[in-house]
Amino acid sequence: MFLPSPKIVLPTVLAVVGGLATLTAAAADAPFKVGFVYVSPVGDAGWTSQHDAARKEMEKALDGKVVTKYVENVPEGADAERVIRDLAQSGYQLIFTTSFGYMNPTIKVAKQFPKTYFEHATGYKTDKNVGIYNARFYEGRYLAGIVAGRMTKSNIAGYVAAFPIPEVVMGINAFTRGMRSVNPNAVTKVVWVNTWYDPGREREAADTLISQGADVLTNHTDSTAVVQDAEAKKVYAIAYHSDMSKYGPHAQLTAVTHQWGAYYTKEVQAAIDGKWKPGSVWGGIKEGMIRMGPFNPVVPKDVQDLVNRTATDIASGKFHPFTGPLSDNEGRQRLAAGKVISDEALLKMDYYVEGVQGKLPAAK
Amino acid sequence: MIEHAITLFALTLAAGTVLVFAALGELVTEKAGVLNLGVEGMMLVGAVGAFIVADETGNDWLGVLAGMLSGTALSLLFGVLTLSLMANQVAAGLALSLFGIGLSAFVGLSHVGHVIDPIAPLAPPVLSGLPVVGRLLFAHSPFVYLSLLLFALVQWFLFGTRAGLILRAIGESPQSAHAIGHRVIAVRYAAVAFGGACAGLSGAYMALAYAPMWTEGMTAGRGWIALALVVFANWKPWRVLAGAYLFGAVTLVQFQAQASGVAVPSQFLAMLPYAATIVVLALISRDTTAIRLNAPASLGRPFHADT
What we know:
The complex is a heterodimer. The radius of gyration of chain A is 24 Å and the shape is globular. Chain A has helices at residues 6-29, 47-61, 78-89, 103-112, 137-151, 166-182, 199-211, 225-233, 261-272, 301-316, 343-347; strands spanning 32-37, 66-71, 94-97, 117-121, 130-135, 156-161, 187-192, 216-220, 236-241, 252-258, 280-283, 290-292, 326-327, 333-335. Chain A is 41% helix and 19% strand. Chain A is built from eleven helices and 14 strands. By secondary structure, chain A is of the alpha/beta class. Chain A folds into two domains: 29-135, 3-Layer(aba) Sandwich (Rossmann fold), CATH 3.40.50.2300; 137-258 and 290-347, 3-Layer(aba) Sandwich (Rossmann fold). Chain B has helices at 2-31, 39-57, 60-84, 89-107, 133-137, 142-160, 162-172, 174-179, 184-210, 222-232, 237-259, 266-284, 288-294. Chain B has 13 helices and no strands. Helix content of chain B is 72%, strand content 0%. Chain B has a single domain, classed as ABC transporter involved in vitamin B12 uptake, BtuC (Orthogonal Bundle), CATH 1.10.3470. By secondary structure, chain B is mainly α. Chain A binds chain B through residues 41, 43-45, 158, 164, 189-195, 197-205, 207-209, 211-212, 214, 223-225, 228, 232, 246-247, 357-359, 361, and chain B through 4, 7-8, 11, 15, 18, 105, 112-113, 115, 118, 206, 210-213, 215-222, 251-252, 255-256, 258-263, 265-267, 269-270.
């Protein structure tokens, strides 16, 4: 029987231990790998563009501690699953999937990679290693409404909208309530274009709204066409997702911008520190996820002040854009005076509030 | 009311023009017997070419030229594949669309988010100031007039000239045309190139005037609609024109209806332009004999001179 002499064993063990030590040290020094999955090309403005700006912001804040990678233009569905799995397999430790349709692929891949952290935007399914996050876009919409209400001369605002889902309807309603809080005679006209992205069609819808008297436009679609059209037709616009003032230097009154940078920084830092937990975050102005873009100088000082004051009240919880009395546009009371709407009711919103013209396509 | 009608008319012309350019080009290509399904790709490549040149030089009309050339270049690639190398036209056309979509996205990457001075609608000093008539006739985008001119040219060329007759003969029976000494492949190349230039022009109109910007996929499927228009219009230029404007008009009327608060589901309204255009064009082309007579008999079939 062969017994290795201690002379051989000891150095071997030492070497192994030493090697392990170097390995762990290397692991601690190696930058933390963060992956992002985007539904559209990064582009210059819009939903994905804001996520990518946030990625860069996080990278800068955690300089040297992280490496990031993004995959853009990933269709929702089977392709998404492959992309997310690829990222997990190549050692990305925290993966942000930034579109609603990535929900099931994210959950599925997360089960196969229990040590990897995942965060899915705008969904509702969580798991041991999957957190969710979303923003209260409607808070910004309400503030945009205040600006529109004070700036409109025709008392008609035009809203180019993509699909009649609660998130979009919530925005239309918040905008209208904000507008009517300062101008009870103003109404919102809505045109549904049934696409998230078609610059030609968005422009046609904007033209239509202008021809029907709208002098402030806003949109819930993904191109800059509405702001550009407003600029060309000399009416006002309030941009969404990103600051689009370069596309409409005269037209853009302000913008409701999405800001994910602080959140990404916080989550990645937590993951590096080993303190990451799957959360369910629905942040708004308070969390810095929603910020109003720069004000056009034509917006009077008192309007800017009012917007800032209201923003502070929303952030502190003193005020909620959907505080009763709240009636739909068919006269049915949805919320009694003084009551504040529940998050659950918000996420199921399927009616237009008073002041929106027309009938909601999805309404039963 | 009259104010509304004038606006609607102007918007319809503007919306239809995108389709008019692309569909007229495809019509000529198909009349020569070549089916190029790559319209969407050629439009996008035209759009990006036009936008880049306009952005770099500051001259929009140079951009238009570049757009047409880009569309032509892509169509010639299709020509080489299908006319010289005898590849399957359907497969090559589909591939061309996919290639054009990808290529335009790649080439245009560094110009996303740039802002250009768009080509504005005309405003001739006295004429456009005339009540009603001024805005009805004289205040459209130069592209609108260009598209009408193109329509007249195509109509005249196909049905009023000897060259047009030869082109149509080649679309019907390339063998016979070849037998009496016409150069089938050369004419088909020319027809394909014309289709490419028109698709490029359509893209240039989108990127420089209609929705002045460059973002990938900005034509959003209009190339496919143009393709369908040609078939439903039974290969007649005036029906292509009518179909394109009808499509634009119904889109805009449904937007008007929505903005006026008409209680019809928007999903139904969104479907309407497609349904209305198909129904109307199918009705006016319901004579099956006429369809058979009008459809280029050799459409999509490769030609090889046997001798």
